[in-house]
User: Fold this.
Amino acid sequence: MKPPPGLHIQDSKLVCKLEKSIYGLKQASRQWHDKLTTTLITIGYSKCPSDHSLFLKIASKFTAILVYVDDLVLAGNDLHQIQYIKSVLHSEYNIKDLGKLKFFLGMEVARSREGITLYQRKYTLDLLQQSGLLAAKPSSTPMDYSSKLQISSGETLKDPTPYRRLIGKLLYLTHTRPDISFAVGCLSQFLNTPTDLHHQAAFKILRYLKNSPAQGLYFPIHNTTTIKGYSDSDWGACLDTRRSITRWCFFLGSALISWKSKRQNTVSRSSAEAEYRALAMASCEAQWLLYLFRDLSIPHTSPISLFCDNNSALHIATNPVFHERTKHIEIDCHVVREKVQNGTLHLLPISSKFQIADFFTKSLSPLPFHHLLAKLGMISIHTQACGGMLKETSNSQDEEDHHSIKQ
Assistant:
């Protein structure tokens, strides 16, 4: 063993004994999280059972700390408590206070009297510049709706590294851009042996992003705390495995808060079975949202309305008579029936043309694509259509405060 650079030891027989976990070690993140957790619990915070990276302190007022490694976000309406916790963390870990939350992990936060917008404009522009498409012609949709890609489509790339790197960056962009989640999810299935057609499809997503790089999620301040969800499935959509695609999304009032687009693990024998499996996954997400609401002390007395456009799946969920059609379905899929019976969910039918989750199940032509996109509650604050919506508010007008700090 050799002493680290900067440490001068005359006796060459001496070695260093590790007293603390540092960056680069496998146990470093665990040790850091344990130490930070101990500090926060000591001063009255509790770890959220539904999300272990969230710490809460609820008394007469509310304070929350969201942790990502050594980056912390403080939020709440108790300014005195926020200042106190920052002073404690500074004395313990020598933190750096970044002030009002405006930028966090590549995500930009814009606040106004009307609400909060979460977007990734700088990340998108950097991605376009790195790909050489900053001056490319924009595309109206993120994916070609006239054809479907397969593993054997096109010629295999000699070097798949650029394609894999691009898809990885696009996956991170889906945190604030649900409009590209389906396209990115499809292309991520070809990471093993990508082809030139797959690479061209990834470039089409970038050309779509050029239309509105600042588009993101909008959370209005005048909003309800009622959760509603949409569940959908595209039967046998994967041409290589013939598995169905599960899609669901949940709204808090008019704000989109949760969504998913994923290929199912098994092949469904019918469209009703595929839709029922999608309902089961959506039911688990609805239950988790209720747990999170409970930890945040937000009441949600009424059942969550979950919309589905397949009547057979709704009948299977509410009526266990269809034995011949459901005896081969795994038992865990029947969790949706349990949630309906205990009042957690309220299943409702909906027409396919009003099914918002259809946005995450297939590539659409421009007209239906933008029709459903308008229902997701996304805005672009760098367009005139916003009418100067986002204007900074003064500290005296902000009853609730958000701060970002770094260790």
Q: What stands out?
A: Confidence is low (pLDDT under 50) at residues 384-399. The first helix runs from residue 28 to 42. The longest strand covers residues 255-263. The chain has three domains: 28-97, 103-222, 223-359.
